[in-house]
Specification:
Blueprint lengths: L8 H10 L2 H22 L7 E2 L2 E2 L2 H10 L4
Antiparallel strand pairs: 1-2
Length: 71
């Protein structure tokens, strides 16, 4: 299994520029709702999970699952 490389901030920035404004708005709304849920349910801030030192993009994971018919 090939190890995933860490992405530089420049790569992240370029990818963000390539996304549509609608997708960026959905991403912002997703994280706002998720933070609100964490505050209401457990009264704690949202901490992004990391796998092998790489932060997991929860919106990208959610969007991929929904696109394959999951919920």
């Amino acid at each position: 299994m090939e190890r995933r490389k860490r992405r530089s901030p420049i790569d992240e920035y370029v990818d963000a520029l390539m996304d549509s404004p609608e997708k960026l708005q959905r991403c912002t709304l997703f994280y706002q709702n998720l933070r609100s849920f964490y505050r209401k349910k457990w009264n704690c801030p949202l901490k992004a999970p990391h796998i092998q030192g790489v932060e997991v993009n929860l919106f990208r994971l959610y969007d991929t699952v929904v696109s394959f018919g999951g919920w």
